[in-house]
Design goal:
The protein has helices at 3-28, 33-65, 69-88, 103-126, 132-160, 164-184. It has a single domain (3-184), classed as Growth Hormone, Chain: A (Up-down Bundle), CATH 1.20.1250. It has 6 helices and no strands.
Length: 185
């Protein structure tokens, strides 16, 4: 596979990570260096690991979960998005602003945004393509797109203001719906 094709695949896979990072940056309003690193690193790591898992798993494992993988991604994104929407209706003193760059929120978002990369790994195995260089490129591109997304999200939050938490929750749910629609259609 030539490098240009690989970069296009990596960008296509990184779009969900970018969109979620955009929402996370807006939700956090001012992400510190640790939050930015955690989100970018984990999105890049999961985007790199999922193709390797798909490549190693072969057709048996993927065929067992491909009928539900999109629903898993949707559920993870909907839960986190729903929490953000709920919090947006709370008064400032009642609002619990969870750090989406920690714990299960981070793992859930990382898995949800990288499930498509599992299928890419399977596809590469089917055409007898190596996996480690493509996985590395996919991971680096996703990490870079996540870094850009979180920084742009911070800027957007200053424009949109307090409604960004609600908008971010809606965006996460819409990304989940997009994943479901792409797999059904």
């Amino acid at each position: 596979m030539d490098l240009l094709t690989l970069i296009v695949i990596a960008i296509a896979l990184g779009i969900d990570a970018f969109a979620v990072s955009l929402s996370a940056g807006a939700y956090l309003v001012k992400a510190d260096g640790r939050q930015t690193f955690r989100l970018s690193f984990h999105f890049g790591l999961f985007q790199a690991l999922m193709p390797i898992l798909g490549w190693l798993a072969g057709t048996t494992f993927v065929s067992m979960i491909e009928t539900v993988d999109h629903w898993i991604a949707f559920m993870l994104l909907a839960i986190i998005g729903g929490r953000m929407i709920y919090n947006s209706f709370q008064g400032e003193e009642q609002r619990i602003r969870r750090d989406v760059t920690k714990g299960w929120s981070l793992v859930s978002l990382s898995v949800a945004t990288s499930i498509d990369a599992l299928a890419v790994g399977l596809s590469l195995a089917m055409i007898s393509e190596g996996i480690f260089f493509p996985a590395l490129v996919i991971g680096i591109v996703a990490a870079a797109m996540s870094l850009i997304g979180i920084r742009l999200g911070e800027r957007i939050s200053h424009i949109v203001g307090t409604h960004m938490e609600f908008i971010g929750g809606i965006v996460l749910i819409l990304i989940g719906l997009k994943i479901v629609i792409e797999h059904i259609g």
